[in-house]
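Researcher: Next sequence.
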Amino acid sequence: MKRFTLLLMALITVMPQISHAGKKNDGPAELKVMSYNIRMGAGKDGTNSWMYRYPATAFMIDDQKPDVFGVQEAFDYQVLFIKENCRDYDCAGVGREDGKKKGEHMAIFWNKKTVKMIKWGTFWLSETPEKPSMGWDAACIRTATWALMKCKKTGRKFYYVNTHLDHVGPLAQKNGLKLIVDRIASINPQGYPMVLTGDFNITPDNPALADLDSMMQSTRKIAAKTDNLGTFNDWGKASDMIDYIYCSGFSECVEYQTVTKKYADRSFISDHYPIFARLIF
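Model: Next structure:
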């Protein structure tokens, strides 16, 4: 009888561990996200050209350690540089000119240790979003890349969208952003948490942001710790707030930051500062 009692007590002790085996942690989890206009590698920027500043990008990513981030203006060799030098990361995205490798990529990178990719796609900001095309009064072809992902710590799914709005056409800016808003609504009927990053080429007072503001929140505005620094620096000649991280479905944003820190002794790692947000599921 004594042996039976001891065995029963041992089973009771072990059972909670067995019942939780294989289950994800249901508690709060942090998601670190970043938006980074890397400045196209073909830019003729003198001593700020990609050939001089590329190591700084790898140092910045290693220092900031985002779980997921979106880049704008990246050519295929810039995307490849990040993959080869930041080995924890994988990426998804296509060239905007042909839907393959040609032109700038609105790529999404994720840390393979903390985030799992489920599915992704790209659409064009135009009247024909399913194929390479220029929309409205745009000066360039513009795209958005989206991804359904999963936080490995909790198993919770979330959507991530990364884009770059046109820098010239006001109609392309307005309609491109509306197309993104509509797509966000259509691809996420489950109501998963959502992140939108990008260079919008418009300032926060632009009325084109109205539809987006009605369904998502700017992390710059809601973060417990934040700043109001300009994000486009033009190599020290400007200070315009045109890069954004929006979110919905998260319990809070604990921090938003414009990353002005120097890396590899470069005053500027790009003509835009990276921006960073810490979100809580």
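Model: The CA atoms of residues 25 and 153 lie 6 Å apart. The domain at 31-280 is CATH 3.60.10.10 (Deoxyribonuclease I; Chain A).
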